[in-house]
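thread: overnight batch results

M.L. [08:02]
morning all. the overnight job finished for the chain we discussed friday. pasting input first so we're all looking at the same thing
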Amino acid sequence: MLQHYSDIAKNENKDHNKLLEELISKYWKEGLYDREYENLSENNDFKTPNPYELQEIYRRMHKLTEADIYNCSSCGYGQCEKMAFAIFNGLNRPENCHFYLSTEGEIAHRETEESRRHLQNILNTMIEGFLQIDNKVRLVDVNPALKKMLKIDSFENKTLYDFLNEDNKKILSQQLALRSQNKNSTYELMLIASDGSEIYCIVNATPLYDNQGEKS
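M.L. [08:03]
and the structure it wrote out:
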């Protein structure tokens, strides 16, 4: 800026210090830069957690052993103990700990896997038939009960239409239209087993959607 006003001063044949003084005077107000401060240090009433309280905060952060005290500095405090101190005083929360987020992800994954295994055990032991189809009516999942009914072990490259006659194909097509409208329904359908025998079913159908809200 000194160089800038020096160049202007040369062009206008003026002293550059004089130009700066004129500019400052243009915007100057009495007391413009006056500041008053109060001593509010008494408001900084921080509490230090005792060993039991510290361990409780570590537990909330999923830090259960000495090996979990990483001091990785991802939180900005440099030490896990300082982060725990901030949480204890309400200045931060466990969700801002990198280790906490990582552990939460692992817990969520384990819970998802346990739920999946639990559901699979139910499907494998139930006496009712269960099947899941994709948007192209291909068989994605079939439980043992339905395999037994249809007298077939492999459903690879099979669609539900492969087990229907023409009349029941029309019924299924009508029902799929309802599913695309996010509607559940209960209806009758006749399946044809591999040996040609007919299986009359009461079908409870529900559409499934992915995380983006798209029908899967």
